[in-house]
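Tokens in:
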């Protein structure tokens, strides 16, 4: 049996810094790990008018054509649009939702990490006044 002593706990505490927001960051990372698939872009359901003069879509009130389900995303700087059936939308809607959820979780994880860094650095500055200021490197302009 392994017995834990106060001295052993103190040694572990010295070796692993207790960063603030650790539980928040861990929970966010676990939520990110639960995402099994995602599809980026946006989905819109459209009802449209056609070009025929005597069509019902020109009437008052109009009976528009559709619904047309469009999935739009950007690939290598180009906009790609694909039409989906209602069955495809129902099948892949969780993946569209996961893309939005992942963006939200990543933003929260980034914010929590920045807050942890700021709190840890502020704490370091209070403990050690001789800490050197961060230096920034100057970048060359692009050619």
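Residues out:
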């Amino acid at each position: 049996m392994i017995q834990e002593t106060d001295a052993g706990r103190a040694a572990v505490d010295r070796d692993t810094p207790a960063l603030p927001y650790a539980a928040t960051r861990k929970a966010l990372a676990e939520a990110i790990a639960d995402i099994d698939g995602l599809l980026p872009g946006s989905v819109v359901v459209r009802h449209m008018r056609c070009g025929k003069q005597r069509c019902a879509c020109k009437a008052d009130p109009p009976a528009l054509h559709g619904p047309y389900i469009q999935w739009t995303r950007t690939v290598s700087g180009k906009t790609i649009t694909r039409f989906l059936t209602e069955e495809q939308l129902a099948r892949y809607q969780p993946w569209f939702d996961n893309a939005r959820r992942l963006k939200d979780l990543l933003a929260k994880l980034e914010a929590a990490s920045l807050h942890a860094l700021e709190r840890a650095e502020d704490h370091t500055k209070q403990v050690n006044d001789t800490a050197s200021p961060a230096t920034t490197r100057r970048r060359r302009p692009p050619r």
